[in-house]
Amino acid sequence: MKTAFYSTRKFERDFLLQAAGDQHELVLLEPALSLATAPLAAGCEAVCIFVNDDGSAPVLEKLAALGVKYLALRSAGFNHVDIQAAHALGMRIARVPEYSPYAVAEHTVALILALNRKLVRAHNRIRDLNFSLDGLTGFDLHGKTVGIIGMGKIGKLVGHIMRGFGCQIIAFDRYPDNEWAKANDATYVSIDELCSRSDIISLHAPLMPETEYIINKESIARMKKGVMLINTSRGRLINTLDVTEGLKSGQIGYLGLDVYEEERGLFFEDHSSDIVQDDVISRLITFANVLITSHQAFLTDTALKNIAATTMYNLDCFVKGEKGVNELT
Ligand code: NAI
């Protein structure tokens, strides 16, 4: 079976080709899936996409008209795909529900450490032979309160690692896992209490109507002055304009982002020769206490290997006419 892989980059191609072996015919495409690029899937029965591809109804209709019957997501999140529209078109969808929660949790902690101890600033200074320490003061993580919104696989790992630093863990989740909390010295609280008590807030809930802009003007006003806010989940969990205001007033003391609500078309691409038209991210980049990575929290060799292997498993299920365990219903 021939599958069109959209948004493929150098960093993942070898993993995909190796996992495919000679069982699958892959068409590795660099462009993201959109209305304009959908025709590139002509002749393919399946399409494989990543987080910033457009899986909206009009695009799916175009794919279905080309004869595409299967959509394999190389991601856990599926907020970028209109599942109902796909099913109405008779298209089946599978995702990679878990590839390495460790990768994302560890990157989250890397952002916390780098922001707190101002590692990027220190490194840039040293390259300029400036060995002064002024402006580089951090804080002890030991004894601080870390609030985790969305205590699932990744949130729990972040809690576990931060517990190792001597932090107190509080969490907000729609479905509290009290057994885990008891075993790991964590406490579930309301979202308001989490905001008002945390020194560091880390977001690990999926993007859905209930979590969209869960961080906004009102929740920021409840936070401790100088709070550290980390988002490695999905950009639209935070209202970026409200967060920018929070940074300007000093209410937010540190911001670490791996995701951004307008990241599509921006992240994963080299825009170094372009005039960036997005004033919101341009402003964020000017703050010394903001650290942004380009949706790379998943990017470890273990995760890439697992994504490739599970994707091929999902495609195999389709070829064999089986309903695989990763299919979205
Ligand atoms: P998970 O499904 O194991 O955990 C999500 C948790 O959020 C669950 O405990 C769930 O009960 C909770 N939740 C759901 N709705 C909620 C609500 N309305 N309010 C509060 N909590 C709610 O997912 P996992 O694997 O931990 O991933 C979390 C998120 O991380 C994903 O949804 C995805 O957006 C993001 N992610 C980011 C990556 C990156 O590279 N930056 C890579 C992989 C995932």
UniProtKB/TrEMBL annotation:
It comes from the Bacteria. The keyword Amino-acid biosynthesis does not apply. Residues 109-297 form the D-isomer specific 2-hydroxyacid dehydrogenase NAD-binding domain. Residues 18-326 form the D-isomer specific 2-hydroxyacid dehydrogenase catalytic domain. Its EC number is 1.1.1.28. InterPro entries: D-isomer_2_OHA_DH_cat_dom, D-isomer_DH_CS, D-isomer_DH_CS1, D-isomer_DH_NAD-bd, D-LDH-like, NAD(P)-bd_dom_sf. The keyword Plastid does not apply. Keywords: NAD, Oxidoreductase. Pfam families: 2-Hacid_dh (PF00389), 2-Hacid_dh_C (PF02826). CDD domains: LDH_like_2. GO terms for molecular function: D-lactate dehydrogenase (NAD+) activity; NAD binding. Belongs to the D-isomer specific 2-hydroxyacid dehydrogenase family. PANTHER family: 2-HYDROXYACID DEHYDROGENASE HOMOLOG 1-RELATED. This is 2-hydroxyacid dehydrogenase. It comes from Chitinophaga sancti.
